[in-house]
Design goal:
Helices cover 24% and strands 29% of the residues. The protein is an alpha+beta fold. The strands form seven sheets. A six-stranded mixed beta sheet has the order 7-8-20-11-23-9. Helix 6 packs across helix 7 and helix 7 crosses helix 8. The chain starts with 6 loop residues before the first strand and ends in a 7-residue tail after the last helix. Bound molecules: fe (ii) ion.
Length: 380
């Protein structure tokens, strides 16, 4: 290997070639021939417009080998495979691909927070949408899981205009937009003046709403302050205090259900979802809608202990941000990570009217990557 080319070209006992990639962190990794073959960038292998592969898994023999390899100087690596195909690779591109696939599912690693988060992450919406603040806004949102937008027009329906800047609005049986105010014959406790403990919305739905936007049009009532809690931070604290209980909440499917005259939605989810790497992926916490199966007594002892501890932490002053939304304020939060709630309000003391909607979780992710591609943010 030359100093400028971080790939070793060696021989295997059968005479074929073994490539070993040296990574920026000092470690090295052998490259599987099929892994490299399916990344051939030539137009016979990869459609140049869609960047989609032009062959299927059975088209590659399992005993595929690398039979030729030559570092051309600079960034180029020429490789020949035992199926007769030859291609030229960018070593930097291979390194970037290895790094990208060893990372996490989101474009930015989350930074956990509790009540000490200061300052409150907020952005002026008019500046963001008309100027250059959008990239920074996205970075804040993806890192912390929420942001408060100020100066959003208080015209009814504006929440949909904001949402469409970030992704596709997810219509549900509540419509594309829902009004949050106290009303007679409420079909959800959200539509009363009762306090709402921190929760995630709609765990009974598939898919669960990814991101929620709540826009304040009027808030003249006594009470009705907003709460946000970082569910990942609380789950991490539960894991620290009670690893057995934490594990139980990551592996026990619970039934969530919503029912009205025309709808019956049921989904089974574990309260704390981890991804394949064991990283936090999502929280499902709607403590008036969760029903655990009749498990063995000792398992339920652990489950109920953990659920109680989780709920106590989620409602404790240590983790909750409490603030008041005024007219023109909009809180946008990752409904799979950040729990939301409110204090009780007295609808007779003044009007309180919020409008909300959902978008999918991947909208801001995509927008952020496009900003990175355009050089407006450093690539993650
Ligand atoms: Fe809610």
């Amino acid at each position: 290997m030359s100093g400028a080319v971080p790939v070793d070209i060696g021989r295997r006992p059968d005479g074929s070639i073994q490539l070993v990639l040296h990574r920026g962190d000092g470690s090295s990794v052998p490259i599987h021939p099929i892994w490299l073959r399916e990344r051939c960038p030539d137009p016979a292998s990869l459609d140049p417009l869609t960047l989609q592969r032009l062959f299927e898994p059975p088209d590659l023999p399992l005993d595929l080998a690398i039979v030729e390899a030559e570092a051309m100087g600079g960034d180029e690596l020429r490789v020949g495979f035992s199926d007769g195909h030859r291609s030229v690779f960018s070593i930097a591109a291979i390194q970037a691909e290895v790094a990208a696939l060893s990372g996490i599912h989101a474009p930015i690693r989350p930074r956990l927070w509790d009540r000490r988060l200061n300052p409150m992450p907020s952005s002026d919406w008019q500046q963001a949408v008309n100027g250059t603040g959008m990239a920074a806004l996205l970075e804040t949102f993806l890192t912390l899981g929420f942001v408060v937008l100020r100066n959003v027009p208080t015209t009814p329906g504006s929440v949909l205009d904001v949402a469409r800047r970030f992704g596709h609005v997810r219509m549900t049986n509540f419509g594309d937009l829902f009004d949050v105010w106290a009303k007679a014959e409420a079909d959800d406790l959200a539509y009363t003046g009762l306090a709402l403990a921190p929760h995630t919305d709609n765990p009974y739905r598939d898919p669960v709403p990814g991101i929620q936007l709540l826009h304040c049009l009027i808030n003249e009532a006594e009470g009705g302050n907003s709460t946000l809690v970082d569910g990942f931070a609380v789950a991490a604290e539960l894991r620290r205090r009670d690893s057995e209980g934490f594990a139980m909440l990551t592996r026990t499917p619970v039934r969530y259900r919503y029912c009205d005259g025309t709808t019956e939605l049921i989904a089974w989810r574990v309260p704390i979802e981890l991804d394949a790497r064991g990283e936090f992926f999502a929280i499902n916490h709607s403590p008036r809608l969760d029903f655990v199966p009749l498990l063995p007594l000792d398992e339920l002892d652990v489950y109920y202990r953990a659920r109680r501890a989780f709920a106590v932490l989620l409602t404790s002053d240590d983790f909750a941000l409490r603030f008041r939304l005024g007219p023109g304020d909009l809180e946008m939060f990752d409904n799979r990570r950040v729990l939301h709630g409110r204090t009780a309000f007295d609808g007779r003391s003044g009007a309180r009217h919020l409008q909300g909607c959902y978008i999918d979780r991947d909208g801001p992710d995509s927008l952020y990557r496009v900003f990175c591609r355009a050089g407006r943010l450093p690539a993650a």
